Amino acid sequence: MGRIQISQGRRIRALVVDDSVVIRKLVSAVLDDQPGIEVVGTAANGSIALQKITQLNPDVVTLDVEMPEMDGLAALREIRKHYPRLIVIMLSTLTSRGAASTMDALSLGANDYVTKVSNIGSLDKSIDSLRGELVPKIRQFFVADTDAPPAQRPAPRGPAPESPRPVASSRPMPPPPPRRSGLPAPQAVAIGVSTGGPTALAEIMPVFPKTFPLPIVIVQHMPPMFTALLAERLTQKSRIRVVEAKEGMPVEPGVAYLAPGDYHLAVRRRGTGIICTLNQDPPENSCRPAVDVLFRSVGDVWGGAVVASILTGMGQDGLRGIETLRAAGAFVVAQDEPSSVVWGMPGSVVRAGLADSVLPLTAIVPEILRRVGAC
């Protein structure tokens, strides 16, 4: 979708929507304390939020999932009808019900989500959580237009205006990597993904055929409970099984293994087979699970006999692992910028000249199948 351009000198305008007065005040205080962000309004439910979007023309809405009168999912449906480009970040509880609602919200077009701290009484913990998670997730969708003069936003007239249009990237692309001959036949597929990942995985996993001959290992940045539900939903949509990885689980062909929330996933040899291993070592790239951890272990087990894919996501997790895999002979596929929700992770790989193919999301699996010989 590309990042949204904000004119120089203008702050990102946020609307905070939550039925809890405490949460509204907490989120507002955190955001108003950030340079370049201002809270232009609050709302106690989705119905009020829709009215205020028309009046205030925000750039981003933080939207609670569970609210009276009109909940977050109902509000999100209406927002996507009338404001398709408005950035919406869901705030959900770290519970099974919260996870299910958040997955529904992502499928309805929410841009991202943040889990609330369950113990509101711990003010410092709540503030740290919001500052560390919500603020970066807002900023990832915007870029300052340093070429544009500071501008006052005019008051809306007539129908509610749309959010600013995404800006097409004008950054120069590196030359394609030199062709390599004699690449090893792939024995596994490794995928790293973050922001926008649940929707991206829901689109690509059903494309793998039932007879796909290789194991697939995946890191999607998500908290506990969310990954189990994601695996379950992907299995329902797909012709291959998608499972949340467990300690000691054998790695088998035609099965996709998803790293569980808050655990690094790695693979290792045990006897004549390969198993999943989990650990809670420190986060890497501020992530646990981390793509780099998985990709390093993939290189240890399969060397370069791998097709590695980096999909939409914030940051650079996976870049170091890709460097190692490609040096060993792995084939690297990166998602292109127009089809990415955030082009951080794939963009870092492309800019480093490590991607053999840079493709839209719909072309990722066909390229994998071609490389595997499973068309």
Provide a descriptive summary of the structure in words:
- The protein is of the alpha/beta class and 375 residues long.
- The protein folds into 2 domains: 4-145, Response regulator (Rossmann fold, 3-Layer(aba) Sandwich), CATH 3.40.50.2300; 188-372, Rossmann fold (3-Layer(aba) Sandwich), CATH 3.40.50.
- Helix content is 33%, strand content 22%.
- It has 11 helices and 16 strands.
- Strands 10-11-9-8-14-15-16 form a 7-stranded parallel sheet, with helices on both faces.
- Helix 1 (21-32) links the parallel strand 2 and strand 3 (37-43).
- Helix 1 packs across helix 5 (123-139).
- The model is unreliable at 146-170 (pLDDT under 50).
List SSEs in N-to-C order.
Answer: EEHEHEHEHEHEEHEHEEEEHEHEHEH
Residues in β-strands, percent: 15-25%
Rg? 21 Å
Structural domains: how many: 2
Q: Unreliable stretches, pLDDT < 50, 5 or more residues?
A: 146-170
For the record, give the distance between the C-alpha atoms at the N and C termini, rounded to a whole number: 29 Å
Give the quaternary arrangement of the chains: single chain
CATH domain topology of the largest domain: Rossmann fold
Order of strands across the widest beta sheet?
10-11-9-8-14-15-16
- CATH class category of the largest domain: Alpha Beta
